Amino acid sequence: METNAFMESQEVKDFNKKIEKDELGPLWNAIPELVSKEPAQHAEPYLWKGSVIKEHLMEATKIFTPERGGERRAIYLQNPKMKDREPWGWGAATQNIYAAVQLILPGEEAPSHRHKQSALRFIMEGEGAYSIVDGERLFMNEGDFVVTPQECWHGHGHEGEEPMLWMDVLDIPFIYSIGGSFFEGYPEEGVQKPERADNYSPNHYQGGLVRPIKDRKPKKAPVGTYKWQQTKEALDGLEEFDPDVYDGHAVEFINPTTGDTANVNIASWMQRLPVGFRGKAHRHTNSSVVHVHSGSGYSVIDGVKFEWEKGDFFVIPSWSWHEHVNTGDEAVHLFSVHDTPIMETFNLQHEEEYKDGHQEVNSVFQP
Ligand SMILES: [Fe+2]
Ligand SMILES: [Fe+2]
């Protein structure tokens, strides 16, 4: 907006100060920023090394033991541009998405609870741990995707041999900003006891292809676990087709009963960038958090090069130009989450292609 000398004058400043004392605000000065021409970027592009997070989590195992009462041993990605928000930086990786890494040791349990926030998990390392969701134990292995819908009781346990690491994603900052949080601890101590057979829903639904004949009513998320082998086969099937120019070969996890996204507020994808893939740049109003499941390469976000490898995480803020490149000699797998369902619900989803296809790289990101 053009600067208007009068709006910066002493007369205006004095008047603004005067109304401020009565808890009132001057729209004439506020409007260009409050009703911005384009989406304001609440978050900034950022990258976290997986190795750094893991090191902190291993140290945390010695400090934060289950007996000491913490609900969860998880370290979240705090977007530097949002860390001053009270309380706790809103747990914001982007303005709507919370993303963390949780570590559970063999024999440990994380007590059951439920909340209005809906959760999803992506298993980074290990095997033998389970999430118990509304009385059903879902065993998790590397590459599996797990949903814990809003208001479902959930806790975790670990019957394996090695530390287990997974990515947790919730709509915490979004729910916080609109004032919708409710939380409840399970009425009994510890983890809920199993009430049905282990892996009941993934076995009965076979990845969403069929359903039990007595189970015809739509459900929040009937499948619970999406096994890596099935996701991989879905991507293998796409290999003979041209990849998407921006995202490579990519699939979204869905609720097979409704066809909607698997988690109501946050869409989850598995993307494969073939060897030599160089994606074009685009931007959209939804923000994204990306986890590198395998391979190496870089993304250019708003002219800055973010180099990544297996285990790393990075954030693509709303309305930031971005493009992805595979520089390795194997296919890259990216697990990514997007607040697209929120933006679509409020009719705010917009996308735009970058006119020259690729951005100029101005600098290389250093954490
Ligand atoms: Fe939870
Ligand atoms: Fe994108």
UniProtKB/TrEMBL annotation:
The keyword Heme does not apply. GO terms for molecular function: dioxygenase activity. InterPro entries: Cupin_2, GDO-like, RmlC-like_jellyroll, RmlC_Cupin_sf. Keywords: Dioxygenase, Oxidoreductase. Residues 102-169, 270-337 form the Cupin type-2 domain. Pfam families: Cupin_2 (PF07883). This is Gentisate 1,2-dioxygenase. The lineage of its organism: Bacteria, Bacillati, Bacillota, Bacilli, Bacillales.
